[in-house]
Design brief:
It is a single chain. It contains eight helices and 15 strands. By secondary structure, the protein is of the alpha/beta class. It has three domains: 6-108, Rossmann fold, CATH 3.40.50; 128-192, 2-Layer Sandwich (Dna Ligase, domain 1), CATH 3.30.1490.20; 203-322, D-amino Acid Aminotransferase, Chain A, domain 1 (2-Layer Sandwich). α2 links the parallel β5 and β6. The radius of gyration is 21 Å and the shape is globular. 32% of the residues are buried. This is ATP-grasp domain-containing protein.
Length: 333
Amino acid sequence: MAKKTGIFYRAVPDSGQASVMVNAQNKLNLGFPNCFIPTPRIEKLIGETAETLWFPIKDGTKVSLPKQPWFINFCADADEYSRAMTYLKHILSKTGAPVFNHPDAVMNSRRDKVAALLQDIPNLTTPRCVRFTPKMPDDFVRTFEESGLSYPVLVRPIATQSGVHLVRIDNSADWDKVHSIPWGGHTLHMTQFVDFATPEGEYLKIRAVCAGDRIFIRHVLISDNWLVHAMDRTDAIVDREFALHEELQKSETFKSVVSEIRTRIGLDFFGIDLGWSEADQFVLFEANAAMSILSNAHMPTYRRADYLKILKEIEEGVVRTIRKVQFRAARGG
């Protein structure tokens, strides 16, 4: 068995909240939101070479690190794990150890920071996003007006990666919609909505994946609605998705856009959701490591082998990236 010089860094969210479920073996599973979820192969690789370090660490506890350590950061969301990222950054500043998904890069992936960081990339529209903590209902309109946003806008709580509690405000009469969000005492994001419908009136959503220096296209979804999800797809739609997939693979513009996003954010492994409005025009939705990437949930049965091939290629990219981190540690950083 390989010597365990790695640190598998995990954390309890800042909120202290986790999920508890009963599995098929009638045992309790404890789950933490917005974490990197490895495949069994990746988990085995890490388990053979790394010990787990949990944050928060009890006051007075001395953390003993191996010689020439390296870190796998499983905390994928800047808002869920800001305290844990601050502590990991402190350790890295003392040790100089290489890390998979550096805490600075995780913090760069916060929605409002991404909106500022990815401005002015050719062929990419990056909508403005502001962060605010409303205390009264009037704070929504005040934030909207003071930020210079225009209708429509999207409002959602921080640390959410789906359409849960997401509302679209189309005009001044729509602000009552925000009361469907449990916003009291919470921080929210307000984002400029950019219509990304194609000339044919369809909505195309790309999930690109960066693993080390490689770029993958996980899927291209087609919808007649702006809120695109991986729903049940007919065989004909699946065939169209793969045709669009092949078109993207040939697009130098797409590769250039995604490469620039990867460079600016700096994560080793993360997803990028984009709207595809025209041949060489894209709209940014989000870019972070908290996306569902290696899961086969919602995968159609038709052409399943093709989907699994994509996931296998992404998995190999992650394994190669982890091994590069290990190699850097063996070489002394």
